[in-house]
Every structure is written in C-alpha cells, then in structure tokens.
Amino acid sequence: MDKFRIRGGNPIKGRVSISGAKNSALPCMAAAILTPETVTLHNLPYVRDIITMRRLLEDIGAHVLTPELRTHKISAANVELMAAPYELVKTMRASVLALGPLVARFGKARVSLPGGCAIGARPIDLHLAALEKMGAEVFLEAGDVVARSPEDGLVGAEISFDKISVTGTENLMMAATLARGTTTIHNAAREPEVRDLAELLNKMGARVRGAGTPTIQIEGVEGLGGAEHTIIPDRIETGTFIVAAAITKGELEIRDCNPEHCNRIIGKLREVGVEIEEVNQSTLQARCGARGLHASDLMTEPYPAFPTDMQAQFMTLMTQANGRSTITETIFENRFMHASELQRMGARIQVTHDKAIVDGPAKLIGARVQASDLRASASLVLAGLVADGETLIDRVYHIDRGYEKIETKLKEVGADIERVRDSVTAPLSTQPQESL
Ligand code: EPZ
Predict the structure, then answer these.
(1) Contact assessment for residue 103 and residue 84, using Cβ atoms and an 8 Å cutoff
(2) Which end of the chain has less neighbouring CB within 10 Å, N or C?
(3) How far apart are CA 36 and CA 80, in angstroms?
(4) What letters, b where the CB count within 10 A reaches 16 and e where it falls short, cover 336-367?
C-alpha cells in the first residue's frame, strides 16, 4: 500500500486549482442510468471513487467513454444487469446510488447492502423505507437489497426523512423523476451536491423543484433524455487547502473553487484567525492572520452548517491554536479515528463519545501514522506539513478516493511530500478498498 513521506516545516505558498466535487460526481454518474441517451459530465475529479463508479456502470451494461481524463460520456442504453455487486459496494458505499435509478427505469434492482465503515454503521434504512413509500417491494436476500416496483412503476409519495441523509435524498430524487405522479421529500438534505444533481436531472427533462431547501418536489415524467453538465468544485478540498495555508503560515491562491458553497467553512476558519479573501466567484486567497490561530468550539451539522467532512482537518488546525477547542461530531458515531494518530504526533486531544477536546498549541513531531478514512487521511497530511521531522502516512489509498493527486498539488505549492509506492500496490484503477 502506498505511503506518503512528508517532511514538515515548509510554508504552503502559491496557487492551487480545485477539482470537481466527488460527492456531486457520484450521484450525477448514477443519474445516467435513468436514460438510454448519453449523459456527458465534465470536471469529474480523477479519484478512485469515480473509477469505481465507472466500473459499476460498465458492469451493469452501460457504455462509458472518456474523451478526456475528467469528462465521461455515459450511455445506459443497453443495461442488462440491474445489480451492484458486493465487491463494488464494499469498495464504495455510494454504489447504493444505483438503487433508485435502477428501480425507477427498470422496475427492479439488486444492490449489496453496504457494510459499516471506519466512521460508522451507516445504514440505508431511510433509503429503503422511502422506496417502499413509493410502492416498491423491498426485501433482503443473501446480503443484498432487492427492490421491485409495481408493474406500472413507482408511485409519487410524500416522504419525510427522520434524519437528513445526503445520498438518501439523492437516491429518492432520482427514483421520483420517473414515478407516476408527484413526490415531495421533506427534511431533505440541502448540500450543494444535491442542488447540482437536481440541475442535471432537470437538464435531462425531469421536473425537480426546491433542491437546496428542506422540501423538494419532483413531478414524475414519462422518460428522461441525455444532457451535458459540469460538476461543481469540491468544497471540502477547498477547505482542506485553506487549512494547509493557515497551519503552515503560508499563503495560497485557491482557484476554480466556489466560495458560495463554503460559507460556513470560511466563516469558522476566519473565526479562529485565518485570513480569507474572496477574490472573485471562483478564487480565494488564504493565509494565517498576523495574530495567529486561537481556539474555538465546533459542532458538525448538515449543510449549510459546518460539514462533518471538514471536522478532521479542523481538529488538526486546532492543535496549533492558542487555547482549548471542543469539537462535537453529530453526524457519524465514530469519526474521531484521526485523533489517536494525531496524539502519536504530540497533539493534546481527549476524546469522549461524540466530543474531542483539543488543547493547543502543541508541538507536533513527525511519526509513522495510519490513515483510517478519507478525511482522516487529509488531517494527517496537514499535521505532517507542520510537524518537525518526517511523517510517514500508511494506507493513503483512502485519500486517493477523494483527493485528486493531493501530493502533486501540495508539492507544487512548496510541500516536501512524496508518494512511496508499495511494489504490490495496484495502479489507481484496480485496487479494491473498504467503503466509506
Ligand atoms: C454523504 O454520505 C457523503 N458521501 C459523505 O461524504 C458525508 O460525510 C455525508 O453525506 C454527510 O454529509 C457522499 O455524498 C457520496 P448521510 P451519506 O446519509 O449520504 C445516517 C466523504 O468523506 N443514516 O447523509 O452516506 C448515517 O448513518 C464522505 O466524502 C441512517 O441512519 O451520509 C449518518 O449518521 C464520507 N440511515 C447520517 O444519517 C440512512 O438510511 C447522515 O448520513 C442513511 C443515513
């Protein structure tokens, strides 16, 4: 398994370009299942999860052309297999996004139940209950979820999610586009990625209203057509690079981003002393303020609040801030795995259940550490950038799932980082990994 070797101490300076959002690209790729016509997606990030989703689409019979590295032309005209197999779902739980489209278009689907993962149990009960509300028969068979629509298709319904679920909202939004009648989703996720998917679905001829608000209404149509769409920038990668500039007392120009999607991330980082200037609609300038970093409490919550996917990166930043910060994780039950690795580098963190208390500033010393999930990996990279000496991060395949060539981007802005290839590591496109 590949490793990153980082020698800390260099300020991160220069300009970096943000890639497309993985968590928008995945549902948009799944949406192509809804039509026999070609869906062309631009600005896809070149990351492992996109390759996995492409494999899933090809496995069910869709045809995927990649005229350029970050453009996929997907045609699901000849889908024969309405199934997402275990070996793919265990690699990437977002494979469950094939469920809604398959049932909506073909009346049936078989998707392996995603197991839990490093950050929590992550059930899909809300997805399944909502599909049943739309008339689907849903049952478990040998570890798979099998869903079948009524003979004449899914029926529009009033759906109220007990918990806000991003992929739950996306799955049901896609399923409802071809249902008979109108579906209303209450307590819907409001993430920018949900809005981006709705924009693509409407380009395909769907009638989705209210995406980005807690109530989404979808009027079912007979069929959907092809479309062309450019994926929004990755707000979590944006936040990660802002932290990289601040924690190393450097200065970054962050291009091809969307500051409007990062309001709460920017607001919170400014609160702790990071200077962030919105240069224009797609460019930010970030640096550590002259007064340094100071502690602040944080609670992760669904969008538009501070995202759980930035919690680990924020924790690393707070190890360098003056004072005590209390971080409360409200979305996932086990998302502090990075804390123990940071402690091994000298961070002063106490974790109890859903809270982590961080005392700073703490001098970080390079060490051999292990990544446990995508965003925890990013927090360890950030710690390595500021630690004294050398940090060796193992299992960086986690980070390859969601950050495009992060070591290349960091090297270009001054980081002393290199990828240590493990002789047995398969190239990016084939190595199966546990799901997130
Ligand atoms: C999406 O996961 C993202 N993944 C995650 O990003 C992100 O952390 C998460 O939303 C929260 O923002 C993609 O979009 C591909 P949820 P998702 O359903 O949809 C519980 C990353 O790092 N729940 O919003 O799987 C669930 O256990 C990844 O890029 C149920 O109980 O998350 C969690 O506690 C990590 N039953 C909460 O709801 C369900 O049926 C929110 O989960 C569904 C969810």
Answers:
(1) no
(2) N
(3) 12
(4) bbbbebbebbbbebebeebebbbbbbbebebb
List b or e across 379-401, with b for residues whose CB sees 16 or more CB atoms inside 10 angstroms.
Answer: bbbbbbbbbeeebebbbbbbbbb
Alpha-carbon torsion angle 426, 429, 435, 436, nearest 10 = 110
Closest Cα to atom 7, ligand 1: which residue?
309
Q: Is 419 in contact with 396 (CB distance < 8 Å)?
A: yes
Domains (range + CATH), the chain: 3-19+234-420 (3.65.10.10), 22-230 (3.65.10.10)
Atom of ligand 1 nearest to the CA of 331: 34
Residue 91 alpha carbon to ligand 1 centre in Å: 15
Rounded-to-integer distance, Cα 176 and Cα 157, Å = 9
| Cis amide leading into 101 (omega within 30) | no
Ligand 1 atom nearest to CA at 170: 19
Task: Indicate the pTM of the whole model.
Answer: 0.96
Q: Alpha helices, DSSP H only, in 15-111?
A: 22-31, 48-60, 86-89, 99-106
Q: Which residues line ligand 1 (CB under 6 A)?
A: 23, 26, 94, 120, 122-127, 163, 165-168, 307-309, 331-332, 374-375, 402, 436
